[in-house]
Specification:
- This protein is α/β, with parallel strands linked by helices and 549 residues long.
- It has 3 domains: 259 residues, 3-Layer(bba) Sandwich (FAD/NAD(P)-binding domain); 128 residues, FAD/NAD(P)-binding domain, CATH 3.50.50.60; 120 residues, no CATH class.
- The strands form 5 sheets. It has a 6-stranded mixed β-sheet with strand order 8-9-18-10-13-14. A 5-stranded parallel β-sheet has the order 3-2-1-7-19, sandwiched between helices.
- A hairpin with a 2-residue loop joins strand 15 and strand 16.
- Helix 6 packs across helix 14, helix 11 runs antiparallel to helix 14 and helix 12 crosses helix 13.
- The longest helix is centred in the N-terminal third of the chain and has 21 residues.
């Protein structure tokens, strides 16, 4: 079923004026048969969790708390945070479907609705990369369907909009939530709580006295008109910041090889210096088949066997199996990178790219990625690493502290490089800005300093010194504990190591408390970002609630 696009002037059909009234309505007359569930956060992870909850046979009272007026999109896809030009790096076929696929939903939107999110009907295909706002509208609509279907199945569901949860207190009768909304403070008791706050929009931070501005909301970057701006990072978050700045100072014209950036009236003095440790742009999105073929050796079953054999040596055992797979699938890559040797693997993987001019490599890589998508082919090592990442994401939570540190230092950059490729249009925009003389790319290395210099900032290191007027932190979501997010009961920082997302509760407290908050998961679950994992975590959380006594 395709839902019509919610009118832009009335997106609050899922907003509740009074969260206290919402909870009272959800729990009024509740008998023992109904289990009370709180979803804290109203982005895609909560939408997927709700979707799986309504499939449970036991009746539930579900209240979804969202501190923004509209539930569904989450910060990465929300109106007012993103401009229509900012793209998601997940194509339509990869988005786990809810009541409808993403492409199917967009095909059901009228021309005006598509224009509002910067999309033309001809651009809608099953493997297109869409504006972030398109995904936001999709999740708003799918949440509405989930609520309607859930109520039809006998669940009680309410959406508490403009409701910020301020405390979670375990007790002998379950978990008590305190929240604040338009009508003031309120509290309620729940049997199960799922924290699913996703990305967090933080205030500017300071490093050595230098203000690091956030790249969101994109309209706020207008404060940097006519300035030379430094951007920490070169991933899609940094690219989004660069695109937003470029469109405040001019416009992109043309497509494909003809794309250019044309300066506008405010362009005098405008320039961007993008800075990352390696000084590389992410690779252009490359083709891979879905479902992804499994590896011959490093299968989920084999990984489970290695986990059962104990934590000592777990990482090395898994990588030895991957090395055997890689030698069979792509012997040249295996001989160069030597996956069986964890230490230095990232350096060996990136060495050919670091030996080239980054802009020339970006152009060559883009051409190869476009040819691969047309021919529906890709290098075997890419597919092998992507398949390995899907297996290892179930292994990493079980690593001991030493191996976890080794993984983050030597392996994570390689896997992130493979799965965090970006839309081709995003790469072309960076190439166009560079060709216009407005975008540079600096390799910071591991030893650099930021320091105030007059009204600007000086960045110093082995590359010399760069001065800019302002700095933007484009490194994406950073890890944070549950305590830092304000949701930790009795000082718990997040889920216990191992399978599942349960946060330990005091003895005598019934119910479940699960953490799906991405910032609190990033250390133990480094691959947790993305909608595929939002769906996977939502399903696991729902199953946990369904199995609770």
């Amino acid at each position: 079923m395709t839902m019509p696009h919610p009118p832009a002037t009335r997106p609050s059909a899922l907003a509740v004026a009074s969260p206290a009234a919402a909870h009272m309505a959800a729990t009024a007359g509740t008998g023992l048969a109904h289990r009370r569930v709180a979803l804290v956060g109203g982005g895609p992870t909560s939408v997927y969790t709700l979707w799986h909850l309504i499939a449970l046979p036991r009746p539930l009272d579900i209240t979804l708390f969202e501190r923004e007026p509209v539930a569904g999109p989450g910060m990465p896809y929300r109106d007012g945070i993103n401009a229509p030009s900012l793209l998601s790096n997940i194509d339509s076929r990869e988005v786990p479907p809810l009541a409808d696929t993403l492409a199917g939903f967009l095909r059901g939107c009228d021309r005006q609705a598509l224009a509002e999110i910067g999309l033309e009907r001809a651009e809608i295909t099953d493997d297109s990369f869409f504006p972030r706002l398109a995904l936001g509208r999709y999740f708003i609509a799918q949440l509405a369907v989930a609520v309607a279907q859930g109520r039809a199945r006998g669940h009680r569901i309410e959406i508490a909009g403009r409701a910020e949860v301020t405390a979670i207190v375990p007790g002998p009768d379950g978990l008590t939530l305190d929240w604040h909304g338009p009508s003031g403070g309120a509290s309620g008791r729940f049997d199960d709580v799922v924290i699913a706050t996703g990305h967090t929009l933080t205030r500017p931070t300071r490093q050595n006295g230098v203000i690091l501005h956030q790249p969101w909301p994109s309209a706020a970057l207008r404060r940097f008109l006519g300035q030379r701006v430094g951007i920490l990072g070169s991933s899609l978050s940094a690219i989004d910041a660069a695109v937003a700045l470029a469109e405040l100072h001019g416009r992109f014209s043309g497509e494909g090889d003809d794309m250019r950036w044309l300066p506008g009236p405010a362009a005098e003095g405008f320039a961007i210096e993008m800075m990352s440790r390696k000084g590389l742009l992410p690779e252009a999105d490359w083709y891979y088949p879905l479902p992804l073929p499994p590896l011959p050796g490093l299968t989920p079953a084999r990984a489970a066997q290695e986990r059962a054999a104990g934590r000592a040596g777990l990482l090395d055992r898994c990588m030895a199996v991957l090395a055997q797979d890689m030698a069979a699938l792509d012997p040249d890559y295996a001989a160069r990178v030597r996956p069986e040797r964890v230490e230095g693997l990232a350096e060996r993987h990136f060495a050919p790219r670091l030996a080239q001019d980054p802009w020339q490599y970006a152009r060559t890589n883009l051409a190869e990625a476009e040819a691969g998508r047309s021919a529906r082919t890709s290098e075997p090592w890419r597919r092998a690493l992507l398949a390995a990442h899907q297996v290892l994401e179930e292994v990493v939570p079980h690593l001991d502290p030493v191996d976890l540190e080794r993984f983050h230092r030597h392996l994570k950059p390689v896997f992130v490089d493979v799965y965090a490729s970006v839309p081709h249009r995003s790469v072309r925009r960076m190439l166009a800005l560079h060709a216009a003389g407005r975008l540079g790319l600096t390799a910071l290395g591991g030893d650099y300093t930021l320091a105030p210099q007059g009204r600007g900032v000086a960045i110093s290191g082995g590359f010399g010194q760069i001065t800019v007027d302002a700095m933007i932190d484009g490194r994406g979501q950073q890890p944070a504990s549950l305590a830092e997010l304000g949701f930790a009961p009795d000082g718990a920082d997040g889920p216990a190591p191992g399978d599942g997302f349960d946060v330990p509760l005091p003895e005598g407290c019934p119910g479940t408390f699960q953490c799906l908050a991405m910032p609190a998961l990033l250390r133990r679950h480094p691959f947790v970002q993305g909608l595929v994992n939002a769906d996977r975590m939502g399903r696991a959380a729902a199953q946990r609630i369904g199995a609770a006594p």
